[in-house]
Amino acid sequence: MDEEEFHLYNQEREISIGYMVFDGFAPLDVFGPLQFISGISADFNMSLSIISKKAGPISTYVPLHNIDDGMPMKETISASVIATHSVNDAPSLNLLIVPVSDIRYGGIGNRARFMGNDTWIENFVASRFNATDFVASVCTGAMSLAKAGVLDGKRATTNKLAWSQVIPFGNNVTWVPNARWTHDDKIWTSSGVAAGMDMTYALLRWLYGDERVNVTMNAVEYAPHVDPHWDPFSVVHNVPGADHAHSLKDLVGPVGYDN
Amino acid sequence: MDEEEFHLYNQEREISIGYMVFDGFAPLDVFGPLQFISGISADFNMSLSIISKKAGPISTYVPLHNIDDGMPMKETISASVIATHSVNDAPSLNLLIVPVSDIRYGGIGNRARFMGNDTWIENFVASRFNATDFVASVCTGAMSLAKAGVLDGKRATTNKLAWSQVIPFGNNVTWVPNARWTHDDKIWTSSGVAAGMDMTYALLRWLYGDERVNVTMNAVEYAPHVDPHWDPFSVVHNVPGADHAHSLKDLVGPVGYDN
């Protein structure tokens, strides 16, 4: 079907969304995208499952830890969201979204403190991948997708501070250093935390077209980055292949206005 | 004390933060600011209370409703956060933050469906105001501050889509039409939803200085708007006094970099 038919198809069907959460998740990874998605859900049919290993409260809490250079960091303040489903009882999903799989200041190294060798996130992604229409990651959620094998042969990106810790995973993944987000076949990936909002705007436009999505963006006063190649944080965090030839800044404004 | 002394004073004390939530709250109003605040809490001493009328799960759910022009809207998908404290057992607070007091598509008119004549938010703000160091609102949370009387004689702003519905409240409030956020004495207010993140960046720099705050911003890859007068949404939403003479767009990038 063509683009317009695809928009109508999505506007008329129900899209079942699953958002994975786990202890130490980054709140903006989840609730930035969900702000836009829940806004659009007032226009089009969606359902949402918040999925964790077990249903119930899941906290953003990060304990005392060292960052990757050994600097000691305090435990953080935190909030808890309620997981509505466990991986065992989650419904059929059209869109599965996987947020950061590490800790804001702790880097990937601290992930083991939370997850140990537990691969329930990767197992769930791998088991559900074929039955989903699309899978999206925010920040280092891409590491979970890579470990699950669903990035093999695909283009992907991730948080640029955690770049070197994420890109060893997966087989034949084309990790794109200059990307606010990527879209390759069923796979959407974003760069760090806040980039998930820009990916979500692009994803929602791709699904539903501009009209209602733009109304939502301007109601919540978010000026998105719309160039998927804008990525100053690859320069800030010294990612190999970072594009130093362009300005680090981006001209953003309300969507639908030229000047 | 001077600016540097003020930063040291805040870096060395514990800051008790209270975030109010209630049914139908906008998730990005809460979790955008909290992403930055919780990041900084790994550096400096903070505590966080999520406060509602009663402790327990509070949902972002918005039921079937009409927007202000009468257009019918669907119920939304939703997530629930756990309120850790009720208004009756919340601890002493240095910083109290009040998010949107209306509904994303429903406008202020729908607020009554949720709140009726219940003024527990305003009562709490009024009762705690003198004992706090600062009070901040995100989006139409400014309406709650105005109703509580704490904006009287102050400069403030709010969501520009909801502008005409908010500014009747309060006495002798200077409502600033071209403002991403305002800071007047103890009062910080932001424009719509996403603007809360930019206000929070400004507030955190003001409290703690640039260094650790900028590390956090670049780790989560958020490029903040740093001009409090940048406000294209006042033009988009036809706010009286909107500045039509300037570009609607803003040049943003990673903090701490000039080019």
Automatic annotation (TrEMBL), chains A, B:
It comes from the Eukaryota. Keywords: Glutamine amidotransferase, Transferase. InterPro entries: Class_I_gatase-like, DJ-1/PfpI, INH-QAR. The keyword Signal does not apply. Residues 20-204 form the DJ-1/PfpI domain. It holds the Pfam family DJ-1_PfpI. SUPFAM superfamilies: Class I glutamine amidotransferase-like. Coiled coil: none annotated. One of its GO terms (molecular function) is transferase activity. CDD domains: GATase1_PfpI_2. This is Class I glutamine amidotransferase-like protein. It comes from Melanomma pulvis-pyrius CBS 109.77.
